């Protein structure tokens, strides 16, 4: 493995130790996949150092556990040692139970499915996404995606849609694949409803709204390496504006909103979504590349 030992700045302020912090990144020699080391706080004050796939938040592996009594800086020390060691062994998988003080009580009627024991998906703001059998006002439990904080002993899970999980991770996988696997495992289990989750998967697969992260990366790469400007790309797409003297230029702010770099009016954060026809327009006309190159 080739490793980059220089750690990145934390994703958020690590002072309260409430959020996931990035400790460094490297690329697997065999698969050429980008991986990252993160610190994951637990409700008891301890911290896990986790090796996971970058972007998808999948395949989490426990590198070390830093006890609550240890200095928090030890997580970074462990990460630097791990990145520097090219002969590192295979760490065990991160489980949902690793992030909880107590093990959840399984439903006696539920199917024994490995899909509910999958590696939890973690975003950069201290949230954990898992598939759960949850009671949501129905006579039987529902199989749904749930979101909870990684800290707080009494923190309860919140129902979220599959689209919300995909949006927060800005990647379709592994959430989509895990959903398909879970639906297949529960197909013959009448004790748990999968109707809502099935509908969420269907809507995600046929929606004309698509993730714009790949497009954003392509636009930023074109600006950095091809000498294009945001204004020129927008101009190629037919999005223009005029200044007071009548001069015409591209509407860069339109492009920034479409690629998820700037929020829409009245919104607090940029949208991770774009209409598929808009994505194709920016790719084909603005960047002069095939739209498939920016699809995720």
Element string (H = helix, E = strand):
EEEEEHEEEEHHHEHHEEHEH
Overall helicity: 25-40%
Number of beta-strand segments: 13
Spatial separation of the terminal alpha carbons: 26 Å
Put simply, the count of helices is: 8
Describe what you observe in this structure.
The protein is an alpha+beta fold and 296 residues long. It contains 8 helices and 13 strands. The strands form 4 sheets. The protein has a 5-stranded antiparallel β-sheet with strand order 1-2-3-4-5, covered by helices on one side. Strands 6-7-8-9 form a 4-stranded antiparallel β-sheet. Strands 10-13 form a two-stranded antiparallel ribbon. The radius of gyration is 22 Å and the shape is globular. It starts with a strand and ends in a 10-residue tail after the last helix. 30% of the residues are buried.
Which descriptors would you attach to this protein?
disordered N terminus; four-stranded antiparallel β-sheet; alpha+beta; 296 residues; five-stranded antiparallel β-sheet; single chain
Question: What layout of secondary structure does this protein have?
Answer:
Elements: E1 2-4, E2 21-27, E3 34-41, E4 47-53, E5 61-66, H1 74-84, E6 121-122, E7 127-134, E8 142-149, E9 158-160, H2 162-169, H3 175-185, H4 195-206, E10 209-211, H5 213-225, H6 230-236, E11 240-242, E12 248-250, H7 252-258, E13 273-275, H8 276-286
Antiparallel strand pairs: 1-2, 2-3, 3-4, 4-5, 6-7, 7-8, 8-9, 10-13, 11-12
